[in-house]
Amino acid sequence: MDNRSAPPSRAYANYVLFVLVVVYIFNFVDRNIISILAEDIQRDLGVSDAQLGFMYGTVFAIFYAVFGVPLGRFADVWTRRSLIATGLAFWSAFTALSGMARTFIELTICRMGVGVGEASASPAAFSMLSDYYPPVLRATVIAIYSSGVFIGGGIGLFLGGFLLDTWESIYPIADKAPFGLKGWQVAFMAVGVPGLLLAIWVRTLREPVRGSSEGLVVPPHPAPFSVLGSELKAMTPGLNLIDLKRDGGSVRKNLLYALFILAGVGFLIFLTGTPEQWVALGIGAYITVTWAQSLAVRDPAAYGMVLKSRTFIYLLFGMPATGVVICGMGFWIPPLLLRTEGTNPADVGMYIGLSTAVGGFTGVILGGYLGDVFKRKHPCGRLIIGYLAVAGSLPFGLLTIYASNLFTAAVFNLFFFMFAVSATAIPGATVTDIVMPRMRGVAIAFLILVGTFIGLALGPYLVGYLSDYYSLKGHDDGFSLQLGLTNVYLIYGVTLTFLTLTWHSLPGDEATRLDRARKLEEPVPEDL
Questions:
Q1: What is the C-alpha separation between 440 and 220, in angstroms, rounded?
Q2: At the N or C end, where does the chain have fewer CB atoms within 10 A?
Q3: CA distance 458 to 246
Q4: In 3D, which of 163, 150, 194 has the Cα closest to residue 354?
Q5: Helix or strand or coil: residue 340?
Q6: What is the 3-state secondary structure (H, E, C) of 239-269?
C-alpha cells in the first residue's frame, strides 16, 4: 500500500479540525457583524428593511452559492489547504474594504467579494475532514467544524456592538473622527485585517490523501486549474452555452429552462415590487441549472450519483428550508431588540451574541454527536435530529420574538439556536455517505448552493419585506418586524415533508452506493 494513504494521527487530525474551526469562526464574524451594525448602516446610507435584507442575504448568497459550485469542484482536484487559505485572504480583504464604503452600492459590492471568498471554505474543509476522520465520526466532526458558525456569529455581534459604541463614545461627532469614519466602518476594518494573518497559518496544514479514510484513494489530478477554468466557464452566462453545445448538451432545453425562470422572476417582481431581489435569484438559478446540465455531459458519474439520488434531492430542499428561519432570526433579532427595547448595540451584542454562540455551539455539537449515535442504531437515525430541531426551535423562537426584555430574549434565543441548528451537520454527513469520495466537494457545494439560495437569500429578505409591508399598514417598526419574523415559521411545513421523504429513500441509496457507482462506470475496487 502507498504510505501516503496511511491514516494521519488522531492528534494531528484534531489540530487540523481546530484550525478549520477558527477559519469558520472568522468566516461568520465577517459575515454576521453586519447584523449589529444594521441600524447605523440604515441611518447613514438611507436604506429600507427589504434593501438591508437584500444586501445582507441575497447579494451575499448569490455570489457565495454560485461560486461555491466551481470552487467545490476545484476542491475535489486541487490542494484543499491552499484553496481555503486563498479564499480566507480574499474575503478578509473585502471585509476590511467594507469599512471604506460610503454608499449602499459600494457596500453591496464589498458583500459580493466577501461572498466569493467565503465560498471556498466549507466544500474544501468538509472534504479534508472526511479524509482525516473515519465515516463513523463524520457527523460529529462536521458538527464541531460547523460550531464555528455560531461562535463566529456570536463574536461578530459582541465585537461589532463593542466597537460601534466604543468608537462613537470617543468620537461622538463623526466629522471629527479620523478620516471621517463611522463606528460601523471601523468595525468592518477591525475584523477583516486579522484574517489575512490566519490565511498564512492555514497554508501550513498538511494535505491528507483524498479518499484515504475509506480505502478509496484518489490519485492527484494532472490539471486541476483546467477543471476550475471549465467550471467557471460553465457558470458564466454566454460562455456556458458555447461549452454546453460543444460537450453535447441541449441548448434548446437550456433556453426552455431560461424562459421558465424568466417567467417566475416576472411573476415574483409583479407580486412584490422588488426587482433586484428576484432578478438576482433568477440569474443564480439559471447559472445553477446550466452548470448542472454541463456536469451531466462532462462528468455523468458525478451527475448521476449526486443529482439523480432521491435522498440528495430531498435533502437539497428539505433541510435548507429551516435556514429561512435561522437566517431570518439570526440577522433581525438584534435590530428588533434595538427597536423594541431601546437598548444600545453593546448590550444587545453582548447578550444576543453570547446566547447565539452558546446555544449554537451546544446545539450543533450535541446534534452531530447524537446523530452519529442514532445512525449506529438505525440507517435513518441522523434524521431524527431534523425533527427535533423543528419541534424545539418553534416555541423558543416565538418566545424570543415577543420577549418582554433583553435578558429574557437572550435566554429564549439561546434555546432557539440550540434546537434550530442541531441538524446543521446532518445533510453534509448524510450526503458524504451516499456519494464517492471524489464527488464529495461538488455534492457539498451543491447542497450549500441551494441551502444558501433558500435560507440566506430568502430568510433576511422575506422578513425585511414583510416588515416593510406591515409598516405600510400602519404598524410601528418594532411590531412590523415581529410580525415578519413570525410569518417565516410557516416554512417548517416544507422541512417536515422532505424529512419524511428522505426517511424512506436514504437506506436504499446508502446501501447501493457502490452498485450505483459501478453502473455509472465509476472505478470501484472489486474487493469493496
A1: 15
A2: N
A3: 35
A4: 150
A5: helix
A6: HHHHHHHHCCCCHHHHHHHHHHHHHHHHHHH
**Is the alpha carbon torsion for 259, 260, 261, 265 positive or negative?**
positive
Please count the other Cβ atoms lying within 10 Å of the Cβ belonging to residue 1: 7
| 422 secondary structure, DSSP code | T
Residues in CB range of 508: below 8 A, 6 or more apart: none
Q: pLDDT digit string (tens) for 31-41?
A: 888 888 888 88
Whether 239 shows a pLDDT value over 80: the answer reads no
For the beta carbon of residue 161, count every other beta carbon within 10 angstroms: 29
Q: How far is CA 394 from CA 329, 371, 374, 407, 467, in A?
A: 12, 20, 23, 19, 20
> Are 202 and 209 within 8 A, CB to CB?
no
- Which residues are within 8 A (CB) of 485 and not within 5 positions of it... i.e. 6 or more apart? 328, 329, 332, 333, 336, 401, 463
Q: What are the CA-CA distances from residue 25 to residues 18, 118, 227, 334 (Å)?
A: 11, 12, 29, 19
Taking the C-alpha atoms of residue 483 and residue 465, their distance in angstroms, rounded to an integer, is 11
pLDDT the model gives residue 87? 92
Give 407's pLDDT tier (boundaries 50, 70, 90). very high
Please give, one letter per residue, the 3-state secondary structure of 39-67.
HHHHHHHCCCHHHHHHHHHHHHHHHHHHH
86 burial (CB, 10 Å; 0-12 / 13-18 / 19+) is middle
The neighbour count for residue 248, using CB atoms within 10 Å, is: 9
Beta carbons within 8 Å of 136's beta carbon, 6+ residues apart:
372, 376
Predicted confidence (pLDDT) at residue 212 exceeds the cutoff of 50: yes
Residue with cell 455509472: 520
d(CA 192, CA 30): 7
State the pLDDT confidence band at 6, using cuts at 50, 70 and 90.
low
Residue 229 CA to residue 117 CA, distance in Å, equals 17
CA gap 146, 148 in Å, rounded: 5
Q: Are residues 362 and 122 in contact, defined by beta-carbon separation less than 8 angstroms? A: no
**Three cell numbers, residue 507:** 437506506
Cell of 280: 438576482
Q: Is 88 exposed, middle or buried (0-12, 13-18, 19+ CB in 10 A)?
A: buried
Q: What are the cell numbers at 405?
A: 426584555
Characterize 356-377 residue by residue with b for buried, 16 or more Cβ atoms within 10 angstroms of its Cβ, and e for exposed: bbbbbbbbbbbbbbbbbebbee
Beta strands in 389-455 (DSSP E): none
Spatial distance between the Cα atoms of 383 and 260, rounded to a whole number of angstroms: 33
